[in-house]
């Protein structure tokens, strides 16, 4: 019996991960947690209020719920981090440290999401290697570099089975994006369907690594299921699916919504995007534990428009989705 705790379970990745974990392991085996009260009353008995910076609260849940694995998704993303740097450091670094300490004490297996934000202006922008310059320009990136070092340290010093991915921008439909720089590539879909127009906060030529949420969930589960001997990197694996620019995304959406138009009004997030790589080399993940993405840009757009159309009310004035 594998009892699982998901921190930050109501976030962009967490909501889909919890659904999949419950399908695999059973509803009773997965305990959701977050700082806020649960979104749905139905989940109440499997939802725990947890501030990951509170070591005691975390320990109590692990003991009471007999947790064996933690998917530690609680975190403050890049754009929010620039607005609340102290909170970003506290949650992302001290929260992770609490998780790793608990993992050491209770012999837990841990997943930690790192990010392309560990890279910075001096990192090669194209085919960014696994091992390269890491000079992040954001507090979020600094917390992720620190987090990776902590993971490596706890794995090698204390034998903690912690596994991690440097996630690119995640495109998803279940939950709205929550304070990241790659949020434009998510928000654009709902805006296209509901309003036929979107104001994008990065320039059209801004190209970033991205991944559709089903690929991201599969990557996390495959990594966690892999033979420990095949996990050669305990800091964090480069991982990616596709890279596209904001303009290329717009063009792809216009193939289905021809009247959709996008305006560009770059803000402070442009500088963050500019400091990140455009294309990542994830050959180590592919070689070590068999990573392979399934969704390219056109498949992402088709599925996103279909899934979101089912979720949001598309008014009669707005252009219809072509099949
Ligand atoms: C963000 O934009 O902050 C995140 C990330 C790439 O880590 N989506």
Secondary-structure blueprint:
Blueprint: E1 4-7, H1 14-25, E2 30-34, E3 47-49, H2 55-65, E4 69-72, H3 78-83, H4 85-106, E5 109-115, H5 139-158, E6 161-167, E7 169-171, H6 184-195, E8 197-200, E9 207-212, H7 213-225, E10 237-238, E11 242-245, H8 246-254, E12 261-264, H9 269-274, H10 283-289, H11 297-311
Parallel strand pairs: 1-2, 1-4, 2-3, 4-5, 5-6, 6-10, 7-9, 8-12
Antiparallel strand pairs: 9-11
The structure holds 2-amino-3-ketobutyric acid (AKB).
Residues 77-78, 115-117, 140, 167, 169, 180-182 line the site of 2-amino-3-ketobutyric acid.
Features:
16% strand; three-stranded mixed beta sheet; alpha/beta; Rossmann fold; 11 helices; binds 2-amino-3-ketobutyric acid
User: Sheet bearing the most strands, described?
Assistant: 7 strands, parallel
Alpha carbon gap, first and last residue:
44 Å
Task: Find the CATH topology of one domain.
Answer: Rossmann fold
CATH architecture of one domain: 3-Layer(aba) Sandwich
Which molecules are bound besides the chains?
2-amino-3-ketobutyric acid
Subunit organisation of the chains: single chain
Tell me the strand percentage band: 15-25%
**What's the CATH class label of one domain?**
Alpha Beta
**What coarse outline follows from CA principal-axis ratios?**
globular
How much is the average pLDDT? Answer: 94
**Helical residue percent band:** 40-55%
User: CATH H-level name of one domain... which superfamily?
Assistant: NAD(P)-binding Rossmann-like Domain
Topology pattern, helix = H, strand = E: EHEEHEHHEHEEHEEHEEHEHHH
